[in-house]
């Protein structure tokens, strides 16, 4: 019987390679404990940030978004970020190229910047999705909007539109 493990250990391959001694990672590895995540509420949704631009050197932002049944953003596009979605729980419908596509748990979607898109919860239970945007910055947008939504009189929607535009988010008419 061949000794595959022994052969691999003796072979000059990537199993033994390491970064050069003078290579310095651009960022240190990071582990963010669950209790350190920031939670904000805006647009009727709960957003729990797991990795922010501060932690990723501006490379990306990652969060779990919980959307109630029937809810979701209107068609929009981002001029700054690409956006990835992974459905954790529930049923989503994604607007891509003017067509709605239903997706359940385990489905993934990618929306490149400048593409008009939307999503909505088409199920009877909360929709939970892991969402990533690159580069980072979405955490600042959501946090600024959450402050408006926390106003006891309700959000100032013209101000929400200004904040959106300042972050390169535009709504289709």
Radius of gyration (Å): 20 Å
* Gross CATH architecture: Sandwich
Q: How does the major sheet shape up?
A: 6 strands, antiparallel
Helix percentage: 10-25%
Query: Strand order, biggest sheet?
Result: 1-2-3-10-5-8
Cα-to-Cα separation, first versus last residue: 67 Å
Number of strands: 11
Total tally of structural domains: 1
CATH class: Mainly Beta
Give me the secondary-structure category: alpha+beta
Task: Describe it.
The structure is a single chain. The model has no long low-confidence stretch (mean pLDDT 91). This protein has 173 residues and is α+β, with helices and mostly antiparallel strands. It has helices at 4-10, 53-56, 138-149, 157-166, and strands spanning 38-42, 45-51, 61-67, 76-78, 82-89, 92-96, 99-103, 108-111, 117-121, 127-134, 169-171. Strand 6 (92-96) and strand 7 form a beta hairpin. The longest helix is centred in the last third of the chain and has 12 residues, at 138-149. The chain has a single domain (37-168), classed as Jelly Rolls. Strands 1-2-3-10-5-8 form a 6-stranded antiparallel β-sheet. It contains 4 helices and 11 strands. It is 19% helix and 35% strand. Helix 3 (138-149) packs antiparallel against helix 4 (157-166). The termini are far apart.
Task: Give a quick summary of the entry.
With 173 residues, the chain is α+β, with helices and mostly antiparallel strands. The chain is 19% helix and 35% strand.
Key terms:
173 residues, 4 helices, Jelly Rolls, 6-stranded antiparallel β-sheet, 3-stranded antiparallel β-sheet, alpha+beta
